[in-house]
Design a protein that fits this description.
- It is a single chain.
- With 632 residues, the chain is α+β, with helices and mostly antiparallel strands.
- It is built from 6 helices and 35 strands.
- It has 5 domains: 199 residues, no CATH class; 82 residues, Immunoglobulin-like (Sandwich), CATH 2.60.40; 99 residues, Immunoglobulin-like (Sandwich); 101 residues, Sandwich (Immunoglobulin-like), CATH 2.60.40.2150; 83 residues, no CATH class.
- It is 15% helix and 33% strand.
- A hairpin with a 4-residue loop joins β29 and β30.
- α3 runs antiparallel to α4.
Length: 632
Amino acid sequence: MARILRILVILSILILATIPALVSAETSWNYTIPGTYYWTCPTNITKISLKIAGGGGSGASSGQSAYHLSSGTGGLAGQFGNYSSVTVVPGIIYPITVGAGGAEADHLNIWNFVPPNKNAGSDTIAFGYTKTGGAGGALGCGYGDYCYSNGGNGYSTNYMTDETASNGGDALPYTGGLGGIGYGAGGGGAATNGSTVDDGYVGATYGGAGKDGYIEINALNTTSSNWPDFSAAPTTGSGGTLIKFTNLSIIHDAVNLTFLWDFGDGGTSNTTGDVNHVYSYTGIYTVSLTLTSDEGTVTETKVDYITITSVNYYDPNNPPKSVRFHIQTLWGMPLPGATVSALGITTSTGSWDWVVTLLGIPLDEVGINGTAMVDTTDSNGNIEFLMIPSAKYNVTTTLDGYSFPVFYVTPHDSQYNIVAALNGTGWFETGNDTLAQVNITVTSTKLNDTYGQINISYYDAGGTTTGGAINITRDNATRGGADVLVESFPITSSSENVSTTVEIPQEGIGYKVAVDANPYGAPGPDIKAIRSFAIWFKGTPVALAGFSPTILLWFSVFLLIFTAMFAGATHAPQMAIVVCVEAWVLFSMGWLDPLEQNYWVGQPVLIFTLGFATVMAIFWNFREGKRKEKGT
């Protein structure tokens, strides 16, 4: 018992030691030295605030205006940007560049130099934002004027700190201009007193160097590794328009995960994934999606995202409801993959238009702006739309090989059946079995004790694939918890080969690969080439302090031989089962790994040998049992 407890303690320590640090403890980054850097976004950060400043320009050196010496003005500050919320993607490497301040501007101590020296600062670039460097200073007075005076001060930045740019040079009794305050500030201009000696000016001085630029990054959300995101269609419409919000979130932590949609009009929803919403009144609405899990809460907000311009027909006394349309053949067989469109319409006949429709008189129909809804039926031939009971809809259905009647409805009921016409051509369809032509191969390779690689090959021999996705998920360590999405690859052609590197999890947790493709000719999105695969990587070997892997191997061999000899003579068939179980346990603990690495050709041979021995042991016990039955 003491040995078992010792092994469990050591195993727990090893598991804790090998869990990678997925969450960054760092929440702020500052870059003050000019150059290019590469910032890797931690897995638990999806929003940052950003302050950036371009390099400041230098002050101007003394210059000559006509035949008179002039002092210089201060350099301009680099542009400054302060961004309260910038979206970043965990794991992505972002290049950022800190701009340099303009170098000190040397004066020219000779006659007839007209322009002063000056040096502009360079640009600072980060996360798609560019802030240009400040320009250098200029002459302190106009052409032909005397400017024996102090130098001009450099310009300060909006981002005030204790940092300052360099002062301009003195020319007593005049002093150089002061350098501006803050990162990216301009340098001070040069002073001049007009003193000369022989053929040169001794009162000419230099312009001060500008201050280097700056980048400051601060994490806004560090409580969750999830990344909420969504899109909407349409984003403009009239009152009563069905808006479909599509969930685009990246989920890293699905433990106790909840969604909260806030549509900005007082309406909310806890629907997981995609959701529909109808706005009742005109206005511009801000929409947000909040994800809450055991790690914390994170929100994505899209400001002024939905615009409702008018209210055409929405009736507050008849709120929208979900209406199901069931598409079927004349014989009652459901038709998956049928495209159904529902368009709200108005006519010149008003409330009596049903009489005109019944008599077959053509109607002057006008579609209500923004009410068109299009989707395809599921495997049961069903499709649901959010519809207004007081509005009239023109519902059309299309599916290759079938024809359908024109269908008008004012949806007071919750379900309507649409039956394919008798002259449909799809009763005895022929053609290739598109699903049978799809070949999917999934392999895995253990790279080391920490990482493995999963390879997926998708091939449609018919060359008809039009879309789909390959999703890789990891088992949830919590019993009953949802699998965690690791990576998703789109299927865009009939031949796809993708690979991804994954962490080898502990405690027997594995991965699943789900391939969901849509070959052309398959009836619809719920009749697809759907295949699932389970991937399991062997974890890190169980170690015992002071014992090398080779010693553990020979101990395992001794234990197997000892067990076989201990009771093999009297209980040979039963002990063969015990030995096999013991061997599988030692294999799972990793104590037989040196056989793979040093003596045999790899893990497949070891697994085959243990499997073969296990089958033989079971067969031996079966034969022994039959023999004893005959003996009695």
